[in-house]
Amino acid sequence: MTYPKTILNSKIRKAINIFLILSFFIISPIVVLYTTGYRYDLKTGDISQTGVIGVDVKPNTAKVFLNNIEIKKKIPIRVTNLAPDFYSIRIELDGYYTWLKDIDVKSKKSTFISNVWLYKKSIPSSVLNSFENIVNVEFSPDGKYALLTTKESDIYEVKIYETSSKQISTITRTTNEQEPQTSWSSFGNSAYIKITDSVRTTIYLLSATIPDNTNSFIFDTKSLDNNIQWKNSALPAIFIKENHEIKQLSLTGEKIITSNLNVDNWFVDEKNDVWSVDNNKKTLKMVSGTEDSIPYSLNQTENKIIDINSKRAILTNQNETTIIKLNTRESVSIKTDSFTFSQYSNSWLTWSPLEIWEIWESGDYKLVNRTSEIIKTVNPLDKYGVLLLTSENYIKTFDTNYLLSQKLLENVTIKKISINQKEQSIFFWGIVNQEENFFELKY
């Protein structure tokens, strides 16, 4: 029998068989490793398992880009089998500011981008038809209400404005030389109005949710201490000092907390124990109760008590803040002088022009951010750790989790500001395009 001539002689066929067998044993493990999430890094020569990126943002109609390639999936998105590396994540939507960050994907770990909101590109609108005669605006911490103080001729009026319903009503009217003092509680929608003349001082206490439900208290001006402290309570209640008595004022009336107290710099804690600072001796001490407490040493003078609970005390002297852990008597000082309370985390935010710190109920604290831009105010924007910062001429957000900031408004003057999270609105008293008014900025 004769065979046709071929170049595939026995040597070549053996070579092909050996090649195919070797390819099988080389490629098969690679395929298995690849499908089980292993990748070879050409830069380092290492073999490592892949990671995952999850993205969940609002609005959920936004587009998500991974290294400038759009991910054609609906939010929430999960991208698997990513080799360990840094990936650029861009989230965008028409009419909103773009979210952009480099994310480090690690081997065998999932990285989640969550609790992220895109902010609207909007311009502020005037809330009031006329800002004439308004001399002061004080916002409630949750941005739902504002107290407006007006002066026309010799008459001062204090009005309450509800930002959601746009309703406004008058609370007090007085003919007085001094402007009424207004204040909101950090712990609920409660406010007081203090009207003082040379003879008597009248304090109106109210709940903003029921503005007609008020209580008024009249004192001899000379016998009343200037210090007024809000009680840590959702219900309207304040502490005042008349002569040598500290009293609690509420919508149900007044009661004496302690008597025969000859101190000036005082504070009532959550147990109604009274503390006092002796700036001459540089000490903090509980001055009520039956037991004589041991004073806590202070490093500075001219201290004012910001807050005291069962675990820590916070004081300031306008140059620095002192935190004392009451059980261990350990103290630390940080260079801040301004404060606001966050109802989301039950913590105090304190800042200087260049730094922001957070102090928790336990007395622990941390540096939140250090910046080269001057900070004027700090307010919590949501429960996930986003802050709203203002300077002399801008409003911006700062996300403490992703360390990202976004300017929402520039070239404006901000005097007072608050956030209504439910309405997703920022309310502020300031100047925009040379117009002074009470403004709303949607975000």
Automatic annotation (TrEMBL):
The chain crosses the membrane at residues 15-34. It comes from the Bacteria. Residues 51-111 form the PEGA domain. Keywords: Membrane, Transmembrane, Transmembrane helix. This is PEGA domain-containing protein.
